[in-house]
Structure formats: C-alpha cells, structure tokens
Design brief:
2 domains
Length: 144
C-alpha cells in the first residue's frame, strides 16, 4: 500500500463528508477529481466504492463510471448494496429506476466476474419492472 495514496484516500473521504455537510458542491467535484488521480489502484478503488454508498453528494453516476472503468471485483458488494437499498439517494437525478440501473448493469458487466454476473441475474428478478428489464437486457447482451 502506498502511503501517499492512503493519505490522499483518507483526505478525500474526510473532506467529502465535510463538503456534503456544508452543501459545498464545488468541493465535492474537486475531491472527486483528486480521487481520480490516486496512483495506487487499490486505494483508488476503495475511495470510489465508499463514495458510491455515501449519500449527500451528486456524483454517483460519475463514481459508478469510475468503478466501471476500474473493473475491480471488490466493487460488486458495494453495487449490490446500492441496488438492494433502492434508489432513494438518487432522487436528485430525476431519473427513472431503469436509467439508474443501467449505470450499475454496465459496471457489473464490465467487472465480468461470476459474482458480478450473479448480481445482474439477481436483479433481473427484481420486483421493480424497470430494474428487472435493464438487468435482463444486460444479461442478453452479455450472453449474445
């Protein structure tokens, strides 16, 4: 573990909580940018996983995209947690559940482990028809 990366990770997480408490959207964007530059992959993944489940900021789509690009199996647990808890913290997006589910279906498909595919399969049976439809669609694309 890189000490500078660990220090940056802790600073980002600490300062993000402060920025959220102060409704400082500019600081949240600046901290997101700082997190993108963390050189140690494990530390970077951990920051984005933790930001994904952190309510109060408006960067969840961007965070999910970073998770998709990083393709870390450790992210599957966090994505599943968000899917299982519903999309209340995403009301700021004014997006329908199917649109939000698409963020996660892409990330899970790109992670491409048995566990990530199992989460897609699990939520293809979701009681929310929009989420189920998106996950079913993603499974068809994976299996095409």
């Amino acid at each position: 573990m890189s000490q500078p990366s660990a220090a940056i990770k802790e600073e980002v997480l600490r300062e993000m909580a402060t920025a959220i408490a102060n409704n400082d959207w500019q600081a949240t964007y600046d901290l997101f940018s700082l997190a993108q530059g963390i050189p140690d992959l494990e530390q970077k993944v951990d920051v984005f996983n933790r930001l994904l489940v952190l309510p109060g900021h408006e960067l969840h789509q961007e965070v999910t995209r970073e998770i998709q690009l990083l393709r870390s199996p450790s992210s599957v647990t966090y994505i599943r947690q968000v899917l299982a808890n519903g999309f209340q913290m995403f009301q700021y997006t004014c997006s329908e559940p199917g649109v939000i589910a698409k963020w996660f279906s892409h990330a899970l498909a790109d992670i491409d482990t048995p566990q990530s595919i199992a989460v897609i399969e699990e939520f293809a049976k979701c009681s929310d028809p929009e989420i189920a439809e998106e996950m079913t669609y993603r499974l068809r694309r994976i299996n095409a």
